[in-house]
């Protein structure tokens, strides 16, 4: 990172970011990595098309699957603003599961709340049929490598 990152400026577009995510998570089948639906300064929306492998007893999308989507969405919005910096790492993830989520496409809205030289804080909401009725809400902190 040659200059201070900004919440107002994207360094990657959706295609560049999507290509990096596929490369960064090798061994995943198509569809196992969430697709980027929207990307703008301070915000990214990703969508996961879950499979039977992502279910827990009761036919609901498992907590680990939801946490994985939260983490990828947070990583995506951070990288969109700082560029390809693979060693930006999760240092904290706190999630609240609000209701069960059936086997339907799951959306993650990631809002970048703070972007500093060493840390980023992201709010991520998961929802499926109604953005006003989230299935989970998370707060994620990323540590950014010195640049």
TrEMBL record:
Thioesterase domain sequence ranges: 58-131
Name of protein: PaaI family thioesterase
InterPro entries: HotDog_dom_sf, Thioestr_dom
CDD domains assigned: PaaI_thioesterase
A single GO molecular function term of this UniProt record: thiolester hydrolase activity
Pfam families associated with the record: 4HBT (PF03061)
């Amino acid at each position: 990172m040659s200059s201070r990152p900004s919440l107002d400026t994207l360094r990657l577009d959706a295609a560049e970011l999507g290509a990096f995510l596929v490369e960064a998570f090798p061994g995943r089948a198509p569809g196992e990595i969430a697709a980027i639906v929207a990307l703008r300064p301070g915000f990214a929306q990703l969508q996961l098309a879950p499979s039977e492998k992502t279910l827990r007893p009761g036919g609901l999308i498992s907590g680990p699957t939801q946490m994985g989507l939260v983490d990828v969405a947070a990583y995506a919005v951070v990288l969109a603003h700082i560029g390809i910096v693979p060693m930006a790492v999760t240092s904290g993830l706190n999630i609240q599961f609000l209701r069960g989520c059936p086997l339907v496409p799951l959306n993650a809205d990631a809002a970048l709340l703070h972007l500093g030289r060493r840390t980023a804080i992201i709010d991520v909401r998961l929802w499926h049929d109604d953005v006003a009725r989230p299935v989970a809400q998370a707060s994620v902190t990323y540590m950014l490598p010195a640049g």
